[in-house]
Write a structure and sequence with these properties.
Blueprint: H1 2-8, E1 10-13, H2 22-33, E2 39-42, E3 49-53, E4 56-60, E5 66-69, E6 74-75, E7 80-81, H3 82-90, E8 104-108, E9 113-119, H4 124-133, E10 139-145, H5 151-162, H6 166-176, H7 189-200, E11 208-211, E12 216-218, H8 223-230
Parallel strand pairs: 9-10
Antiparallel strand pairs: 1-5, 2-3, 3-4, 4-5, 6-7, 8-10, 9-11, 11-12
């Protein structure tokens, strides 16, 4: 386990002047990273500061004499992945801010529970997720077509969006393997705008799930975990 954690951790050392405040750390880190820093907070461990920038968490000391890049901070006592938990909070959104008009809407039962996904039609994990979500009831699912894997993904996304019954065409392909065969020359601006929007949200993999409380979860969650999230109060 230790070897695995060490393999995930990159440390960059650099000479630096004393950084006495969080604002000083922000400025120093922006200079080192070459990008805007969204937030600087005390990590609560080893005197480190958590620096959030470009959808990633970095750690540094108050002098910015060392920067940990790509590392995972683990609380040994609780076995909690502190970095992962913090990323979930920092990358959360307001569900109502999602451009739901650009999503495929699937309603089952009373549709009271809501969630959204960003998916590539050629993503194997997305297909696994689609089959699992067939078992959900009393839910509204907003599926954003997010083709990032290949040109064929973009073609399939356009064909699905242009179909007369988007939900059926999506499910036919994702769960039954029935290849979309319709036109792809309708107004597919929604697909392109989803690509731009996803990049702004730093969505780099599919599926990526969003729940009513705004929490973002990357990857195909087990059905029990999805049910748990759907049943949480908003």
């Amino acid at each position: 386990m230790l070897k695995k954690l060490l393999a995930l951790t990159g440390v960059v050392f650099a000479c630096s002047a004393w950084a006495a405040t969080e604002d000083d750390i922000r400025k120093a880190m922006e200079e080192r990273l070459g990008t805007k820093v969204e937030s600087v907070t005390r990590a609560g461990y080893l005197g480190l500061y958590e620096v959030y920038a470009d959808g990633s968490i970095y750690y540094t000391d108050e002098k910015v004499s060392a920067i940990m890049i790509g590392g995972q901070l683990i609380d040994v006592r609780s076995r909690q992945n502190v970095t992962e938990e913090r990323l979930r909070k920092l990358t959360a959104i307001r569900f109502g801010d999602l451009p739901l008009e650009r999503a495929i809407k699937i309603v089952r039962g009373d549709g009271k529970r809501v969630m959204a996904t960003f998916e590539d039609p050629n993503c194997g994990y997305c297909k696994r997720l689609a089959k699992e979500m067939q078992k959900l009831d009393n839910v509204t699912i907003y599926i954003f077509l997010y083709p990032i894997l290949s040109e064929d993904s973009l073609k399939k996304s356009k064909q699905i969006w242009c179909s007369s019954d988007r939900a059926k065409t999506w499910n036919d392909w994702m769960t039954d393997g029935k290849t979309p065969s319709g036109r792809e020359d309708c107004d597919t601006a929604a697909v392109t705008r989803n690509q731009d929007y996803g990049r702004r949200l730093n969505i780099s993999g599919t599926p990526t799930l969003f729940f009513a409380d705004g929490e973002r979860v990357p990857g195909a969650l087990p059905l029990a975990r999805i049910e748990q999230k759907l049943n949480q109060p908003r």
